[in-house]
Amino acid sequence: MNRYQIAVIVGSLRRDSFNQKLANALVKLAPAEFSFQQVQIGDLPLYNQDDDANQAESVRRLKSQIRAAQGLLFVTAEYNRSMPGVLKNAIDHASRPYGQSAWAGKPAGVLGVSVGAVGTSLAQQHLRNVLAYLDVPTMGQPEAFIQATQGLFDDAGNIGPASHKFLQDWMDHYVAWVKAHVA
User: Fold this and answer.
1) Deepest in the core among 11, 53, 78, 87, taking most CB within 10 A?
2) Beta-bridge partner residues of 74
């Protein structure tokens, strides 16, 4: 039985996104009591406070999926040394109207992969700042700034042997983080 439902938010819409591949592979490292549902964010309109009283169906769906989850897993790209606009847009939608945030109190893990040597470190830091304001307890350690290198994924799309131990350790810490916050 899946006791812990985790909402997965991928901060990239690119068809061959490294972060989408990472999210798909990473969830396979979790124990059976965890289930993961990717939250669609590509169809959200741009956030406009004028729409708070009459939110689009896609926004209501997003908020419902976040509220139903016991935890959050953010897997994000880095654009221009920050989080992608599509991710920030989703965060803004699910936090509004003011005082009705779907994010509050949900334990989160943050990681990402890019071709750069420092992975998505700056995007993750900016995301952590926003999540702190939204009262999302975010796992601080271990950090995972992953560079997309040959062998990160095997031919089947799983985590490759060179990164498996590191990412299994990250997942084990994340599982413990969620369990500690969902009592």
Assistant:
1) 11
2) 9, 110
